[in-house]
Write a structure and sequence with these properties.
The protein has 309 residues and is of the alpha+beta class. The protein has nine helices and twelve strands.
């Protein structure tokens, strides 16, 4: 959100990813650092106003897709919950994080596979696709609009592990998965270029060959961890006690109720540590300055804000 970057003898200041000033003198830079400290210490992140303009349109269009997914999951008895930035936004802003432009949800593996089999074809205006991370370390299932190219919802699978773990063992378990994915990434590079489906299947085989034995049913409550397709590198710990996730409850997001993990405060602390603090940087999936006029008009029509001629 507030970032100072040093380039040779210049100090460049960014706010919300936008370059706002350049300083050449060190003493001026030091004063800017003081402003940054004051900014972070005194600004209440929950008071940041919601997005406006095209970004808000993107958010509301994505929300419309979420409501369709929610209705489909209820009709087909598929379990899911808001996750990552969407859950953080629900807790901290009762809706979207002001600068966010997508929604993440998670599902238990069985529901995730059922969703893949049943969703495509069920919604004429939406379709499923699998996006491969450019670094070769993850695959993400996306629900996209056939009409609007800039909106989507990411879906992540979660698996069960029937094994007792203390906090250090959770961290070790997470690190082992990261190492497993890193080795897999190196092995994939040695082979010919894979299709999306082949690449996706390679992660399933990786899971079956290395982790499936932990899923044997026992009398203990299982731990829940992000599926091996997930980009594990961005979080310290990616395995959680059962009671943190289940039983699911509901949470308000943009004025509607959606499924949430059972203990969102503890869960978000695992993911982001002090999740109520201002972030050091912000990320968006769309470069708003590059959105075409035609796509803006489609977006307005999708939201019902314009009338057909």
């Amino acid at each position: 959100m507030f970032k100072i970057e040093k380039r040779k003898q210049k100090y460049i200041v960014y706010v919300f990813g936008k370059r706002i000033a350049t300083y050449k003198k060190k003493n001026t830079f030091e004063r800017v650092c003081q402003i940054e400290s004051f900014f972070k210490a005194n600004l209440d992140i929950t008071k940041i106003p919601p997005a406006k303009g095209v970004l808000r349109d993107l958010q509301l269009a994505t929300l419309k897709i979420l409501k369709e997914i929610d209705a489909f999951c209820k009709q087909n008895n598929i379990t899911y919950w808001l996750d990552f930035g969407a859950l953080l936004g629900a807790v901290r802003h009762q809706g979207f994080i002001p600068w966010d432009d997508d929604i993440d949800i998670s599902m238990p593996r069985q529901d995730y596979e059922k969703f893949i089999k049943t969703f495509n074809g069920a919604k004429n205006n939406l379709f499923l696709t699998k996006a491969c991370n450019k670094l070769g370390s993850s695959v993400v299932l996306k629900v996209c609009s056939k009409d609007i190219p800039n909106i989507f919802i990411d879906i992540f699978p979660c698996d069960f592990c029937y094994q007792e773990m203390d906090e250090q063992q959770k961290r070790d378990f997470s690190d082992n998965i990261k190492s497993l994915i890193l080795r897999h990434k190196k092995n994939i590079k040695k082979h010919k270029k894979l299709s999306k489906e082949e690449y996706f299947d390679s992660f399933i085989k990786l899971r079956d060959d290395n982790i499936s034995h932990l899923a044997k049913v026992s009398d203990i409550k299982p731990k829940i961890f992000f599926g091996i397709e997930f980009y594990h590198e961005i979080h310290d710990i990616t395995v959680f006690d059962y009671d943190i996730i289940f039983p699911l409850k509901t949470i308000s997001f943009e004025g509607s109720l959606f499924p949430s993990v059972n203990q969102p405060d503890l869960y978000l602390t695992y993911l982001y540590k002090d999740y109520m603090a201002l972030p050091s940087k912000i990320n968006t999936h769309n470069d708003l300055s590059q959105i075409k006029l035609e796509d803006m008009i489609k977006l307005k029509k999708f939201l019902g804000e314009t009338k057909n001629a």
